[in-house]
Amino acid sequence: MQLAELLKEWPCSVKGGSIRVEVKGIEDYAQGVKEGDLFVVRKGRNSDGLKYINIALENGAVGVVIEDEKQLDSLKLSVPVIWVPNVLKFMSYSAAKINRYPAEAMQVIAITGTNGKTTVSHFIGQLLYALHKNVIVIGTNGIYINGVEVHLDYEHLTTLQPKHLHKILKVALRKGVEYVVLEASSMGLSKHRLDDCSINIGVFLNLAEDHIEDHGSYEKYKAAKQLLSSLSEQLVLNGDDSFCRTVGLQAKKKKAYFGLGNRVDYQLQLLAEGLVSSTCCLQSKKGQKVFSIPFVGEHHLQNVIAAISTVSELGFGVEEITEAVEKLSLPKGRLEAIENEMNLDIYIDYAHTEAALRAVLQTLNKTVKRNLIVVFSCGGDRDKHKRLKMGAVASKYADMIYLTSDNPRSEDPEQINAQIAAGFSPKQHYEMILDRAKAIETAIQNAQEGDTILIAGKGHETTQTIGSAEIKFSDSESVKIALDKCTKKQ
Ligand SMILES: CC(=O)N[C@H]1[C@@H](OP(=O)(O)OP(=O)(O)OC[C@H]2O[C@@H](n3ccc(=O)[nH]c3=O)[C@H](O)[C@@H]2O)O[C@H](CO)[C@@H](O)[C@@H]1O[C@H](C)C(=O)N[C@@H](C)C(=O)N[C@H](CCC(=O)O)C(=O)O
Ligand SMILES: Nc1ncnc2c1ncn2[C@@H]1O[C@H](COP(=O)(O)OP(=O)(O)OP(=O)(O)O)[C@@H](O)[C@H]1O
Hints:
By secondary structure, the chain is α/β, with parallel strands linked by helices. The longest helix is centred in the middle third of the chain and has 16 residues, at 298-313. UDP-N-acetyl-alpha-D-muramoyl-L-alanyl-D-glutamate binds at residues 158-159, 185, 193.
């Protein structure tokens, strides 16, 4: 696409060079610039793109985009210098336009909330695939087309940067994908990563305190989440959550509420709960239906009803949707059971917020046969307020707690754990083993037949960040190694 064509509908000022050049892509990482790309100068937390203009030009940049108007005069370059009021918005706009707006040709569902985004996106993906639709799911756990993970070379974020997202969507469209399910992180929304995604349905799950340091305050975090409302044509909202209700009240557009409580368009009532499944009744404008869900626990019911209502709003019948629900499975690292010969119930779960830890412990508390043992810690350099609260929640349900390390980053994990332990009840049994693999091994070694062990916080993750080093680490691998050692000893 010609630069002149790209800039036609966008407020900008241009100096120098020719705008009759072909633009192939948009890039804000100078070392990643390819011949024909526009380089976007962005001031970040650690650096300033201004320092890297020469690298971008050497790599073949055909124009440089800036946000600081003063630089229009100070930068003397051989290529056009383009001033735009907001480089993040421009990156989204131009990535969509250069790739010919692939999202417009598909149905796009974007999901936000503090907890459950990955789970609900995978549920929606699984339901649509079961209904014979081609679907791409993009989020924390990676990119999946029709349930199969696609490995691509891109910066792995929950909400992808537009420069990657629209390229991926263009390829997906070519492969016949009709539905796109995106996780909308608060950071992604506030950085305008989803501005040009033609979102058909915006789904609001819940809101709890999280990412406060990233945004500066809880109010700003809330405001970032709320941005999804204005980006979406239609909303599907959790009627049991007060923030979601407020978003719904303020939005003058088509909306549907879901929930376990009253005054919703899609209500899920729990009729009976077994060890691994629940029998539920769905009441909606489309009628009533009793069916089985292959999970127990309130948060799972909330996630299932969020997925059912979204797919129903896309126009599918309740009968076919509920049939598919019976075959749903949880994404990697979400209450993932690890089989073993020691008669232990071992689970890995991505719970790293107070609400998530409560949800998963309440669920396990229903099925635990003997002691409930929890191995966890909290991440360093962020959300310090949640440590004491997570300690209190763990202590309410756990018979034994192993405090360990969970991406301590620049903080001392011992200090992090002291802040968690401040929330424990005075009688709480606990031990601190900072080496996470060792903590997992000790928990398994000391457990007795019938015990349940929850290893919380890292879920599907494959790294542990200690200081500035990113070390390879996986909870599921560590469990398998520990089980091997313990069974050999027996
Ligand atoms: C807070 C945030 O949005 N950070 C992103 C941001 O970093 P930054 O603004 O600090 O950039 P910087 O490193 O200071 O560099 C400034 C500029 O110089 C450029 N540069 C820099 C160095 C260099 O050698 N060459 C170069 O060209 C950079 O590309 C950038 O344009 O720009 C970087 C490059 O585009 C991103 O990698 C980085 O995301 C990081 C990886 C990140 O983890 N972001 C997290 C906070 C995030 O977005 N997470 C959410 C999930 C949160 C949730 O669960 O809600 C997500 O959606 O994944
Ligand atoms: N509806 C829910 N309410 C509370 N907790 C939940 C809910 N759904 C899932 N969880 C808990 O949160 C954890 C993370 O779930 P999931 O990855 O789906 O959420 P997420 O919003 O994508 O998280 P993140 O933003 O951190 O990537 C789960 O492992 C589970 O412990």
